């Protein structure tokens, strides 16, 4: 295993944040021009952008959007979290599931997992992100694996869940191998904060082991999982430090494994049951948008996720800065879909239905997608990055977004969303670069109308 310093050097980050204070106009323009080349930025460049005066924010946002459009296009991929168990042995000061909270806990039976999956399929979802508290007795890895198998086995009407991503506590190579074998998509784990003294203050229990958390993605890679997700819980410590440390972590993975993280998550601290309300490092919405733009410019090929922790208005702004995936119609309590809610992990700020979120995305001129093709034909890790890097994503992802949106419109959409969705499909169909793929997409759209499903490139 490496040393912490190999992944991020706290002293160097602090120095960079000081030495790049008050960057000149020339320096900022140089960095933005470099960002437009889409080869990423150095930590020093990112530190200068972090320190850029307010008057440059618009320029930074424009550059981030240009990069997002070039690489990811206009697509926004949708998913829902599925909370499976809120039993937890840890005491994370910010989380409603911490061990001191004496409210009743629940863990879904496999029958309940199946019911919740049916409910989510009937909304139109195709991708789930599983969430578990850490509890070796109540939630051993074999239970996690059985949950995944149960979800993949459910067929409901024309739908099924085609990709299961997982967010569980840091674990061993052996356990990660089991997750890989169960067919997970991305393994996500957030460092929460890279600032060790703050991390130590906020955690108790097995998660308090900073190195266990920091080296988890390396163990996942060793187990053969090549799509991993990183994240910071913004608001625990100074976002400037945590953003640079997150970038450094991504650069380390890229250098060491030949592929960087598949996704960054940018959760922001939200009110949670039995959790204190005031936090000294709270991040405001403008700062969050700046973080997203800086991450987009610094690591252009890593997907970026925003959740329903954020208000619709902020989410929609973030889509035009670099976000490529978003959750919709989420519930943060186990068994909460369609049922009375149990203990919530934290409050969400976007209560809209999936249909309304989709309508909102279309109204912004963007293209909602339920695509899961890459993972299912093995275009993961480096293979995915290889198609992403030369901009080829438009010949694969745009048609796949169109086809999966068409499925949604046929099977689940409200009439107005269907009308708007069909129009946006026509708009983007014309923008598929390859005429051959364009023609094939038209043929496949007709096949979907005749009742076929799950067609992809
Ligand atoms: N228990 C595992 C863990 O902690 O790594 C799995 C994920 S936990 C259910 C999901 C994430 O929720 C945590 O990593 C944390 O970043 C986030 N979270 C916890 N409390 C939160 C809060 N009050 N507001 C926003 N996000 C929160
Ligand atoms: Fe448990 Fe995860 Fe919440 Fe910490 S963040 S208390 S480990 S569920």
Give the helices and strands, then pairings:
Elements: H1 4-7, H2 10-19, H3 25-36, H4 43-50, H5 57-71, E1 75-85, H6 110-123, E2 127-132, H7 141-153, E3 155-156, E4 159-160, E5 163-167, H8 173-181, E6 187-188, H9 196-202, H10 210-214, H11 216-222, E7 228-231, H12 239-257, E8 263-265, H13 285-298, E9 303-306, H14 312-319, E10 325-327, H15 354-363, E11 367-369, H16 373-376, H17 381-388, H18 393-411, H19 415-429, H20 435-449
Helix pairs in contact: 2-12, 4-12, 4-13, 5-13, 6-7, 12-13, 15-19, 18-19, 18-20
The structure holds S-adenosylmethionine (SAM) and iron/sulfur cluster.
Residues 88, 90, 92, 95, 97-98, 133-134, 169, 207 line the site of iron/sulfur cluster.
Could you characterize what this model shows?
With 457 residues, the chain is an alpha/beta fold. It folds into 2 domains: 69-383, TIM Barrel; 387-449, no CATH class. It is 47% helix and 10% strand. The chain is built from 20 helices and 11 strands. It has helices at 4-7, 10-19, 25-36, 43-50, 57-71, 110-123, 141-153, 173-181, 196-202, 210-214, 216-222, 239-257, 285-298, 312-319, 354-363, 373-376, 381-388, 393-411, 415-429, 435-449, and strands at 75-85, 127-132, 155-156, 159-160, 163-167, 187-188, 228-231, 263-265, 303-306, 325-327, 367-369. The strands form 2 sheets. Strands 1, 2, 5, 6, 7, 8, 9, 10 and 11 form a 9-stranded parallel β-sheet that branches. Helix 5 (57-71) crosses helix 13 and helix 18 packs parallel to helix 20 (435-449). Bound molecules: S-adenosylmethionine and iron/sulfur cluster.
